[in-house]
Amino acid sequence: MKINGTVFRQAGVHLAVGCVKASELADLVERGIWAPDVFRASHPEGYQRELTEARAREFARFVRMNGVSPLPILLNFREGRVAGDDGTLDLPDSRGYIVDGQHRAHGIRLAVAEDPSIGDYDVPIVVMCEPDAFQEARQFVIINRTQKGINPSLAEEHLLQSAKTEGRRALLDMQRVGVLKAVVRGAEWKTKAIEIANSLNDDDTSPWYGLIRQPNEPKDETVINKKSFTDSLEPILKDVYFQGKESHVIASALRNYWNAINDLCDEAFLDPAGHVLQKTTGVFVLHKVFPRIAEFATDESGRRVLTRDNLRTILEKPTLPGVGPVIASPFWSSGGHAGMRGTGKKAFGILAMEILEAIETSISGSRGAELLL
């Protein structure tokens, strides 16, 4: 089989790189001429997992929607050699073992079967001619053990840039497209979360000014990484009231909220290392309770008044029996009630519930019972 490509060497090993048409790849995969060496009890020398049809179908949908996939499929021929001359490769007629890329290969097979026009799609491949199956398997392990996923913070920054370039609606549409689901998962709220975090971090009137650590930046004077901060905003951005609000509006409300907290917890802000208020505990818990607090911050006509003064009036009242005020530095000290609760999601949930109950009690006490049974 002749394809376009060239030969090269690494550490004395002869390799080749080229491309095949999707129609050719689909035919070879369909007939089992190019296939992975799958591990089975009856074939313990195999090293590959079984094909997951759902993953192959996802890649097929991606290709059908004009997806670009420059990552090559790695193929090994245990018998024969690759000959290269003037930009042409002559591949062996023997079986080709798919070392890396079986789901892409089968996805292309499915895509071509559903839409023959995709047959002209160029698929990059890298070819080895290693007769030793053990060395072939070692290459598979090296690839799969040493690959590292993208830093989640960087992935979210890409989401924001995508939203600016293509629009949030386009990102939401992408969530229905196979392999892109994982890429744009949560786009409807994460892009807003990034904008809010940036706004609070860049605003010198915000108590978070310069304290949220950007991806790939040194810790320096920052107190929390951006990914933790943006993740903590999920309950707010999924709240019915805030879902329809622009990022800058929510950022302004949160600036007032945190300034009100700062007014009541000045020691915690002066000594963030000795308190958990500006760590994951504080942001996850206080952002979780914010939508409920916002419901209480209304004027006589029912409008929400999320000013610093109004929020401070609500926040200064709640107390826990035997503990004291919940929005006060001692409560959030590392050795205090919040600091001793732990750092898991379950602990955050319990702490948020305690604070909400304290707020409900303080509000109902000043307004009278709201619920009659």
Give an overview in words.
With 373 residues, the protein is of the alpha/beta class. The protein folds into 2 domains: 2-146, no CATH class; 152-367, no CATH class. Helix content is 49%, strand content 14%. It is elongated, with a radius of gyration of 28 Å. The termini are far apart. The model has no long low-confidence stretch (mean pLDDT 88).
Write a concise synopsis of the structure shown:
The protein is an alpha/beta fold and 373 residues long. The protein has 17 helices and 12 strands.
Class of secondary structure makeup: alpha/beta
The profile of the biggest β sheet is: 8 strands, mixed
Helix coverage percent: 40-55%
Share of residues in strands? 5-15%
Distance between the termini: 80 Å
Residue-averaged pLDDT: 88
Low-confidence sequence ranges:
none
Count of separate structural domains:
2
**Cα-atom Rg, whole angstroms?**
28 Å
